Amino acid sequence: MESEYKKMPAISVDYAISEREKNFYVVAGDFFWTDIGDWREVWANSKKDNKSNVIISGDEPGGEVMTFDTS
């Protein structure tokens, strides 16, 4: 996984998705928020196992995974 991670472009999530997408909505909400701009922030703000791994799956509560074709 480390070798694949190193191949990823060094671009923040807001540039990679938000600033390129023309068809999305923003909804106001009263909840905790932190700006997740890169994979380090995803890791820092996610639940970790006993080996400090973060696993996000659709099988656990709150583990919905959304993917977008940004090509």
From TrEMBL:
GO molecular function: mannose-1-phosphate guanylyltransferase (GTP) activity
Superkingdom in the source lineage: Bacteria
Single Gene Ontology BP annotation: GDP-mannose biosynthetic process
Keywords of this entry: Nucleotidyltransferase, Transferase
Protein name per Swiss-Prot or TrEMBL: Mannose-1-phosphate guanylyltransferase
Source organism per UniProt: Candidatus Woesebacteria bacterium GW2011_GWB1_40_12
